[in-house]
Amino acid sequence: MFDLERFISDCRTALNERSPQSAIKEIVARAVAHPSAVEQALGTPQEAKLVTLHQSPELTILNLIWAPGMSIYPHDHRMWAVIGLYGGREDNIFYRRSAQGLVQAGGKRLETTDTTLLGQSVIHAVTNPLSQFTGAIHVYGGDFFAAPRSEFDPDTFEERPYDAEKAKRLFQETNERPRAQTAP
Ligand SMILES: [Fe+2]
Questions:
Q1: Cα-Cα-Cα-Cα dihedral sign, residues 175, 31, 82, 103
Q2: What gap in Å lies between CA 85 and CA 110, rounded to an integer?
Q3: Phi and psi dihedrals of 61, rounded to 5?
Q4: How far is CA 49 from the centre of its chain?
Q5: Phi, psi of 141 (to 5 degrees)
Q6: Nearest to 83 by CA among 117, 127, 133
Q7: What are the distances in angstroms from CA 56 to CA 15, 45, 75, 121, 156?
Q8: Residue 127 CA, ligand 1 centroid: distance in Å
Q9: Residue 118 Cα, ligand 1 centroid: separation in angstroms?
Q10: pLDDT digits (tens, 9 = 90+) for 44-90
Q11: 125 Cα to the center of ligand 1, angstroms
Q12: Which pLDDT value is given to residue 181?
């Protein structure tokens, strides 16, 4: 079974390791290796949401539910991040800064039970390409909501300060939008 309090305390303890991000990647990998247990503890995904499971100056743990077809514009974190999936799929597109602005620099598809570690300079955009919900645990090596960072216009790549409230609204507005029709 997945015990959320235990998971949070394991992640907090791992902050004392020489490489906290590697230790936390293992903890997340162990958790999402049993996706149905995580889903049982966090709830079956039924709407897009961003839930803060833990927030402190040195660690943030989020539960993200991506609605079918949902995307978030490019952004950076400026801290390491561990992502683990317990349902669905996340398509990550990576970007790097260049003299001409932001340029695409590869991608990574994450499937259920996959875990990945993103370095602190990573800039990415995320899409759920499926017609079902995607459930993810994201762990960040700092205070995800307090640290200043950037987001980028998805069309022009214009850089601007990251707006955490806007990101939260994106999840809410996704739920208010009518669902795309499925095939008859
Ligand atoms: Fe991100």
A1: negative
A2: 7
A3: -125, 125
A4: 11
A5: -85, 55
A6: 117
A7: 12, 25, 21, 21, 34
A8: 11
A9: 9
A10: 999 999 999 999 999 999 999 999 999 999 999 999 999 999 999 99
A11: 7
A12: 46
The owner of tokens 């998971």 is 7
Q: Name residue, tokens 């370095």.
A: 119
- 50 Cα: distance to centroid of ligand 1 (angstroms): 12
Distance from C-alpha of 95 to C-alpha of 37, rounded to nearest angstrom: 34
- Residue/partner pairs of 172-175 with CB below 8 Å, 24 or more apart: 172/48, 174/48, 174/67, 174/70, 175/47, 175/48, 175/49, 175/67
Answering whether pTM is above 0.90, one says yes
Determine the 3-state secondary structure of 136 from DSSP.
Answer: strand
- CB of 62 closer than 8 Å to CB of 143: no
73: which 2 tokens?
A: 């514009």
Tokens of 142: 């700092």
pLDDT at 147: 86
Res. 180 pLDDT band, cuts 50 70 90: low
Alpha helices in the chain (DSSP H): 4-14, 20-32, 35-42, 164-176
**Mean pLDDT along residues 152-179:** 89
